[in-house]
Every structure is written in C-alpha cells, then in structure tokens.
Oxygen sensor histidine kinase NreB
Amino acid sequence: MTEADIPTVRGGAARGSGRRPKVVRMSVELPLWRALTGYRILTFCYTFALVAFSYPHYAHPLGAAAYMGTLTVWMALTWRRTTSAERCTRRFLVIDLTLVVGGILLTSLVDTHARIMGGSPTLPSIWAASAVLGFAIKGGWRWAAAASSAVAVANLIERQELARGTIHNVVLVWVASVAIGYVVEVARASERTLARALQIEAATRERERLARDIHDSVLQVLAMVQRRGAAIGGEAAELGRMAGEQEVALRTLVSGGLVGPQRVAAPDGAADAVAPATGAGPPPTGRTGPVRPAPVTGPCDIRALLAPYAGAGVTFSEPGAPVELPAAAAAELAAAVGAALDNVRVHAGAAARAWILVEDEPDAVLVTVRDDGPGIAEGRLADAEREGRLGVALSIRGRLRELGGSADWISVPGQGTEVELKVPKGAAPGGTRRGRARERE
C-alpha cells in the first residue's frame, strides 16, 4: 500500500457550494521505507569499513575488493529505490537478495578457513538484513520468510557446520523479518479500515448536508402542496395526495433508507400528524420560503440574519452590540432558527406566538426560540426521527452538531416549547470544535 492509497478527510464540505470535503493523502507505511533506506546506507558504510579493515587478512583480497566495488556501484545507483513501494519493485528485491546470497557464498572463497571458523563476518555482514527487510515491507511475512530462509541457507553453507552462533544469527534474522512483515500486514489492514471509515464519514456528512438543504426547500414545498390541496379539494386534492407520496419517498431517500417513514393520519385528514419541532411544514406566515442570507465572508452579525424573522407573530430581542460569528457558522445558525420557527407555525398553529432571544456569552452565542403552543409530548421527537422527519434530526440538531454546538429542547405539554441553540465563537462547519446536540424533554 502506497501513500496515495490512504485517503483521509480534513475539513467539512463547503456549505452551499456542493463541493465534497477536501481529501489529502497519508500512509503509516512511508516511514518504514525511509527507515529501510537509512538502514541500507548506514550498514553499507559499516560493511565497507569492515572489509577495508580486514583486507590484509583475506586469502584472496582482490575478490573481496571486487565484491565491495560491485556493491558500492549497486548502492550508488539504487539507494533511492527503497524510499517508496512504487520504486522498490520485485525485480530490484531479487537482485538485492542475489547480491546478499552471492556475497555470503563468496566469503568462503576469499576468506581463510581459520577466520571463517573463528566467527569472522561474511562479506555483506549486517547489510544482508536490508534485503530481507525490503521483502518484509514490500510483501509481508511470507516474502520475509522466503528471503530470510535463502539467507539462512547461504550462511549455513558458508560456515559448513551447525555452530551455535550461526544458528543463533539465522534464527534471529528469520524471526525478526517475519515479525516485521506481519506488523506491516496488520498496518496495511488498519489503513484500509481507516480509509473506509473516513470515506463513510465523508459520505454521511455530505448526505446530511444535502438532506438539510432538501428539507429546507423541497420537502417543505411538498408538505405545503399536500395541505393546500387537501383544503381546496377536487383536482387539487389529487395533486396534494401525489405531493404527499413524493414527500414520503424523498424523506426515505435523504434519511438513508434505514427506516421507512410511517404516515400518521391527522384528525382533519390534511397533513401527517407529527410532533412539534419536527420541521415538516412550510415557512412561517408572511414568507414564501426559508430565509437564505446572501453569501458573505468574514465575521457576520447574527442579528442581521435573524431580524427578517421578526413579524406580527414573532418577537425578536437582541443585544445592543453586534453579535459576530464566522459567516458560515452564522448562516447555519440562522437556518436552524428558521427551521425552529417553521415548526412553530406548522405544529403550534398560525395563532401561536414565538419569541427569539439572542444572547452574547463570553465564549458562545446563545439563541432561544420559544413559543406558546401545546408543547411536545414525551418521546415524540425520537418517534419523529424514526419516521423519517428531518427537522430536528438534520435542520436543527445536525447543523449545530457540525458547528460544535448544542441544541436543547425544553418542553412541557400545554406550556409551549423552548429551543436553545448554542454555538461556540470561532466555530465553522466541519471545524475542529465538536459538540453533541443534547435533547431535554
């Protein structure tokens, strides 16, 4: 597995741009290749010095010099081949291993028998392990076992006896290379699992973003057509019925198809009866669609985004000084407030009143949306989410979760509902600040 094989996600999807999260590349295997390159260079220098020091003691010193000359040229031409998996090909590894095995066998020809029996190192010395490690990192423990076995056989032939020291060295190289190969395979499996998890996370975040946008536009329009059609009757009723069917299908799609939406007939037969704060209906009276502020950059005063929601049935209270948030976070918070007001209009009735209160805390911005409607029955929010209703799950809670904030529902049946939306200052969609949306019933 190479560096380009492991994707990881940094940052969230660009809000309103339709772009996917930025993808960068990483790999925990890359440091192993760099370590192998350093090991090859250092051990080659050690081997070169060792052969030079022992040069007068060889039986055929010119043979040792010829081997070291060949090894020097090989290292000069190929030292970069072990810096990545792409460069370290199977052909290169085979040639590298051939040089190791050939050097070990050549030792018995160029060195004296007395020095060999006395434990003198072979010509490649500890550089021989570099070829075995290359097989281990490239192909895992099976390749490492095959390469180390070849080196072990060559050492036994060179020593011509099963000495304790020889067996010790052979077993040590074999076990170490197999262990490293196994660790590499485990690391690769972990990287594949991580890459898959990151892909799923990115896809889930994108699905949630699209679901929020759909809920704020298409689903609300379909719900409005369904209710108006049922109220008008005639051919409009049939149009409303078809709009309701499409709403159900679309809710199932954007919610991931995990649970099929369940229809609950309202007493008047007009719309589905759902709990307050589920976000199934159209915008409040006086608006033809959700308020969508124009894109801005830099800090944004949240008061300017929430002021258009004020009207005959909505009271807006704000501090005297600007309440600034990053533009993207302010837009998301304003959209969540709009979804909460939509719920008031749909589920508390056109006669219900709502109050918006903006508070500028030292480390966060708190927006409270309160109404005097009938309140939320215990457990109804969870039931609405299971039915595929996306107002609380995505348009409100999802937005605040991605900002690192929280969304709290405080409701007593018969006494209205209060929604507290809290966003930390400096938060931005997809940022590092994370929070869990809490729900209090």
